[in-house]
């Protein structure tokens, strides 16, 4: 649950969001705030057989303040006013917008360079599964976090193209 934008942002320590309903959510929030992706890859690169990259946690965008970027998660969305994240004034940069794509693409380039440097690039698989547009019984799927599957599939395509 870490946007690539947040993964390459300046680390920041803030308390877990009040919307964190589990130790998993609190742990993911901490990893996001401390930009833990690269340190974890550095620590475990030799043990990795296959690295799966799933961009689904990008779908809610990011929260940007003057000194930090964090992933906008269901936990941060659950609390009214939490988008003043940890007391910091932030703004939401929505997934799929040109601004988000530009920020994300720059982070993705750094990520790919780090994967190559760590010898992980040829052991990395990007999951690019389309969102289902119909249920098993043929009915249209319902929107998720304000977007239908056709829109999300279009948005994710250009992100997958970058990787």
From TrEMBL:
Residues 1-22 are annotated as: Disordered. InterPro entries: DUF6270. Pfam families: DUF6270 (PF19786). This is Uncharacterized protein. It comes from Streptomyces sp. SID12501.
């Amino acid at each position: 649950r870490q946007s690539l934008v947040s993964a390459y942002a300046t680390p920041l320590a803030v308390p877990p969001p009040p919307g964190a309903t589990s130790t998993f959510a609190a742990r993911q929030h901490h990893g996001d705030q401390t930009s833990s992706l690269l340190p974890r890859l550095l620590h475990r690169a030799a043990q990795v057989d296959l690295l799966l990259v799933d961009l689904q946690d990008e779908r809610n965008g990011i929260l940007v303040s003057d000194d930090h970027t964090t992933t906008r998660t269901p936990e941060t969305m659950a609390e009214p006013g939490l988008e003043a994240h940890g007391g910091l004034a932030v703004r939401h940069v929505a997934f799929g917008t040109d601004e988000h794509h530009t920020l994300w693409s720059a982070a993705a380039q750094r990520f790919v360079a780090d994967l190559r440097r760590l010898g992980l690039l040829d052991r990395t698989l990007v999951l690019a599964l389309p969102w289902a547009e119909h249920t098993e019984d043929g009915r249209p799927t319902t929107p998720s976090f304000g977007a239908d599957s056709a829109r999300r599939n279009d948005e994710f395509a250009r992100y997958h193209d970058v990787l």
